[in-house]
Amino acid sequence: MPRSEARAFIIIPFTLLAMGLVELSSISQFYFERQLAWAFFSVSVFALFALVPLKFWKALGIPLYLASLLFLALALAIGGPGPRRWLQFGSTRFQPSELAKLGYILVAARILSNRRKSQIALLLQLGFLALIPFLLTIAEPDLATSVTFLWIYVVLLFLFDISPFYLAFLLMPPLAVITSFSPILFLLLFVGALLYSRYIKAGLAYTVSLLTLILFLGFSTPLIWKKALKPYQRERVIAFLAPEKYRTGSGWQILQARIALGSGGLGGKGYGRGTQKGLSFLPAAHTDFIFSSFGEEFGFVGSFLVFILFSGLIYTILRSSFKMRDRFRRALGIGIGAYFTYHFLANIGTNLGFFPVAGVPLPFMTYGGSHLTVEAALLGLLIRALREESSSYRILE
Asked: Which of 44, 160, 175, 366 has CA atoms 20 to 30 A from the CA of 121?
């Protein structure tokens, strides 16, 4: 097992975890003590997944995935009014969507390890398995978390050499919805899709089907906006586009996060001296906006360190995954890399005002046991995959 990669998978996450615990202790002793307990539990989960052979987790992927779907459905069935995202076990709450991410990555890697499947079979099968937790999660409602499954699905197919003929049908629909808000951008997308079809030498039927799909989704966007999104989700998007106009309502979180980060300056105000969270201006400082809270107290230097650590972790995950010869291990690594990339970009983007408020946790730093446990399991799988890949490589030599 390459020592540099193994060290990165241990040192970087533990550093981020320690930084998160420091900030949580500044925010609230209650959150700090609870998260510290989850941290000790997660270490044991990490060790379990790192020590048990991958063939066991490969076989357990389908039962784990099905169990997560059952838990998601159960949360929807027994939940009361408001968001139904958790199951209560005594004093502990569990978020089934986090378990579903782990289950989907394991199942997707198992499917991609089958060399005999055609590309269209892979596309449809993986898409169907991603669609089920996507729909169950979006019904909670939790739009940002539900997108995780589609993101992992697209990244796996894109990085696993799926034909560009199929990838266009995956990428064009969301682009059509996004660009439909601007006639110029939508026209550019339409022309770009036409040129792309010519570039890959697609037939007439393919080109017409792709352009028809773009037109259909583009013109149906107003219906999607009104019917598919909840009122609070529409408010978040509008507030994201013009937060100054909604500074006392939906735009409050975005503006306060920007103020917290900006007021930190180069070196920050110092541990425990953050006024935005201290005076309760910054909402959800221990969850959605822990990066802004950390940036206020430790400044640009601390924020940049967080960015460097996550970038290094994601780069190391993807680099080591592409070097793996075994298809299951390679797909597993790419899926895990996609998981951390989405969570990092979504959370940091929200704190910086690049994305609407999403509620996606920042790995290792955000308060919460469900996501921390799954993140520990994913890191354990990575360590195990590296160890088995290194062993098989020596045997081949």
From this structure: 175
